[in-house]
Amino acid sequence: MTKAEPYSTLSYMSQIPVSTGNHSKRLISFDIDGTMEFGDPPGRISAQWVRQAKELGCLVGSASDRPLAEQQRLWKANGIEGDFFTLKHWLENLKTQFSAEEYWHVGDGQMDELYAVQAGFTFFWPDSFLEAAHIHLNGTHQAP
Fold first, then answer.
1. Residue 10 — pLDDT band, cuts 50, 70, 90?
2. Do the Cβ atoms of 13 and 45 come closer than 8 Å?
């Protein structure tokens, strides 16, 4: 099996509306292992992509099986300042902690999908996230 290259194409990121005050248009939660380029196994979502999403006003963080301190350490080591760190089965708590118009979770497993759907998040698989997000952001397709 060949290791997939991380996504780093950011051309459509300028289409993401920025946050206003304590309210953001989007909260995006990322699993780490199998999703982020620094996971074990490495995933396709680059730290650069997440940093730019944050710069453009998205609330970003991780929801993983890893302990919270480990999540924070990994994000810091990769130059990302997360807005939140949680265990994936606590995704629903993010809705009470952060106000956003849309809540997204990107993960590589069935449990990611299960917890995201139970929490009312739109779920994305890492391999199709950027394309699906681009379609969703352009309004040419309903949320996957």
1. very low
2. no
